[in-house]
Amino acid sequence: MDYQYFEEESDYIDLDEEEEDDDVETAGSLDHRFGQPNSEDDYYFGGEDEMEELVVDGHGVLELAGRLLESMQSCVQPSVLQVMQYVAPMLLLCLLCRLLCLLYSQRRRLTSLAPLHLFHFACGLIILQLTVGYRLLLLLLLAAVGYLLLQLLRLGRRGAQVLAVLTVGSQFLYELLIWRRRSDWPQLRGIQMVVNMKLISLGFDLTASGQLQARIPGPFAYLGYIYSPATCALGPWVSFGCYMDCLVPRNSCLVSLRRLLPNVVFCVLAVTVSNCLAPALSDFFGDSSHFLVMYWDALSVRSSHYFVGIMAQALLVASDQRLDGATKESDMLGPLISQPWRIEWPRSISSLVRSWNIPMHEWLKRYIYAPCKPTASSSRGRTLLAVLCTYLVSSLLHGMDLRIYLVLISLALLAEGESLLRRQLASLLNACVTANLCPGKERCRYSHCPSKRRLNSLSYWLVRLTNLAFTALAIFHLAYLGVVLLGDGLEVGEDGDSFLWHWQQAGYLSHYIGLGTFVLYLFIS
Amino acid sequence: MDISYIFVICLMALCSGGSSLSQVEGKQKSGRGRGSMWWGIAKVGEPNNITPIMYMDPAIHSTLRRKQRRLVRDNPGVLGALVKGANLAISECQHQFRNRRWNCSTRNFSRGKNLFGKIVDRGCRETSFIYAITSAAVTHSIARACSEGTIESCTCDYSHQSRSPQANHQAGSVAGVRDWEWGGCSDNIGFGFKFSREFVDTGERGRNLREKMNLHNNEAGRAHVQAEMRQECKCHGMSGSCTVKTCWMRLANFRVIGDNLKARFDGATRVQVTNSLRATNALAPVSPNAAGSNSVGSNGLIIPQSGLVYGEEEERMLNDHMPDILLENSHPISKIHHPNMPSPNSLPQAGQRGGRNGRRQGRKHNRYHFQLNPHNPEHKPPGSKDLVYLEPSPSFCEKNLRQGILGTHGRQCNETSLGVDGCGLMCCGRGYRRDEVVVVERCACTFHWCCEVKCKLCRTKKVIYTCL
């Protein structure tokens, strides 16, 4: 769940916005930008033409309906059934853990927190046992190693950094040594990734003020944190402080149940789209338009991510665990891991990347990007270093997957280029076309801002149109990048060309567009 | 080669050939249409009109055998699927053979007659295809109907579900299908398979070669359906990991199955009477005696009814012998037509049932335990998915009502093609007529949202060629 993490750019993008220029040159540049979405539109229209041809014999629509129906019958039922079989015990265990904690905390005096940690640990262990079976032992071994590494914190801040390097490095080493031999590593990888993130964050948190503030948590607290039922199987990362805060449930059960229901519904919906609907549509458009194939395939990847995210949300809600950072908590769904609506209709690539996996974004920002970039007024080189560092860490965290490396670096460059260009354009045109949404009528610094203008003014529509074009471009990039991640991440490395096939078909269009963005940016500035 | 050796071989070939022919003739008389009358169900009525009560319909009554009627009565809802399946088979057969001299024509159905006509009386390639495609279509449409829930008696076999999906996906995540079992109701293919055996194979007891051929081809059709049942899996998880894996089975479009069967038709194996004809032992090896007893080539040039056989060239063109290519998956064991072989999952209860029903079940299973020997000993024995036939096909050129052949008079042909649909081969050298006709067809169609197609009517001139 997470191919993102360059969001950090957003932080400095808004920091320095100066450089006023004349509007003359930008008109031409805008044309260029509009040209790109148009080329994408050609794909679209091409596809629709083909569709008409399909329809000509009068069976196109019927055929599509038939195929969808067919795939629904053969695919939806087993998929949903399996997902339910998977999720139901986890949800029950989360609720059980919550109940136990509640009962224990209602005693008059809380003498010790250890039983609470133990409840969490035990429930998490059962979940993992259900999920991975006897491989649990391997995970426990890794957890023990992690606890030993945690003792490094006695060295202070330096120790936390060593801990981070060792954790990420050892993860990579496991991949190298275990992955080749073990067929089941792909399953453990995600779990171990979350554990590593928790370890690193723990190290930095404890040594935040230079000295070791608190004691290193005891083994029970450590295990309870690492294997808390809400986050052990599917993530997301939560900080130790947040975990401690939520040891005792605060929300009423009724609120949780009310939030649980939509989560479960959306979860089923997402898995249906990912397993059945998107592949069926991709098949159907298989011969007509390559862009549509990419789009639907990538939709399958995206909704798979939503599915895991929403499932994790359901677990969070069930055990009343909150997330760190800016309180991205919706009333209906509880804590949000990703924001599908912002991904499906993105304002820009960087906003898309930020919404992809919010906790992961928060983690990278807090522990990697911020330390690497000490002051706000740092040089551009320093910023670049921080971005690169973030990229490197997130890649390493994801394990050895060439596809993810490629997608991440492409995303980073595309997002960076787009943000730079749009900031430049915004200041040139004095219009609200930045990568980030304008903060509102009062705070928007540009004069041409849709929230300030009336509907019938020309600039309102021009700004709208520009942003729409960037959205279309982002959708295209998303399809282009996402399609690579389709399929098991297992046979990667053997045939490098198979997963690049789509990119070849598309003529590496996205990368050229990204390059063009940079060139344009340099040209303007 | 030693001349005397050849002589001996020819002698033996004549003897065995003669005897085999006489046997074929004999069983044509006795077993004519035994298991094939049910095909007529296709013409009984529209699938939609069929209500569960209609198994009492006199038309159906006369079409189905007693056991088949019982099956239909005991499984409400199955009749519609059967009708659908039979029609599916016919249209697929006609699609696959649209460009050949024999175009899978059906006759106006009247009771007591065979739907595909007298061609079925011969044990030729075309017949083998008919049997295979009908059996496959029944399996397919029953399985489909099962998953649609229109057949009440086919329940989802929950014994197949893994205890927990999580327990599988770790192991299955890389090793793939190895130990994953599908869940839900998507294994209806098992019911389709079983039902098809009970229903389609009713009249075929496997007592003579022709019945064995029918059984084999029926089984082959089912095996093709089963083989096209694909497992599809998808991983979900963090960072491309495989934390949750969901899998399901998907039954391919029937066109795919038709294509596969057509390929097998092209590479069908001619089989012959063997000494071990009555051997029910599945493991009976290919007897060297039988194998060596007949060295006549499989293109059948020495068969007495020479007036009807293809010329050598045409035969090659029409039949494209390629058993060696198509048999690549017939590893040694698959010579044995063990019913459960293609997929052990499909008939989960075979063992149980066998135990419960004791002897009867055992006998029934023996029906499928036989070994057919290729006519040409140099060819591999037919595999479970191969089609087999007994005698060469007639040329299908001239009308011969006695044999149920319509001939190719008046068929359209393709002037430029060099293949079977070309005018040269299609018209059997009789020549063809060139006609210009004005065709009115829909054109310039536009799609209006949603969901309507509007077309203009265009008149175009077309040249058609018709066999004399």
TrEMBL record, chain A:
Domain of life, per lineage: Eukaryota
UniProt similarity note: Belongs to the membrane-bound acyltransferase family. Porcupine subfamily.
Entry's Gene Ontology cellular component terms: endoplasmic reticulum; membrane
Record lineage: Eukaryota, Metazoa, Ecdysozoa, Arthropoda, Hexapoda
Main localization category: membrane
GO biological process: lipid modification; Wnt protein secretion; Wnt signaling pathway
Record field: compositional bias (Acidic residues): 1-25
Lipid bilayer topology: Multi-pass membrane protein
Keywords: Acyltransferase, Membrane, Transferase, Transmembrane, Transmembrane helix, Wnt signaling pathway
Annotated segments matching region Disordered: 1-37
GO MF term list: palmitoleoyltransferase activity; Wnt-protein binding
Organism: Drosophila mauritiana
Catalytic activity: [Wnt protein]-L-serine + (9Z)-hexadecenoyl-CoA = [Wnt protein]-O-(9Z)-hexadecenoyl-L-serine + CoA
Name the UniProt record assigns to this protein: Protein-serine O-palmitoleoyltransferase porcupine
Gene name, Swiss-Prot/TrEMBL: LOC117146716
Cellular localisation: Membrane
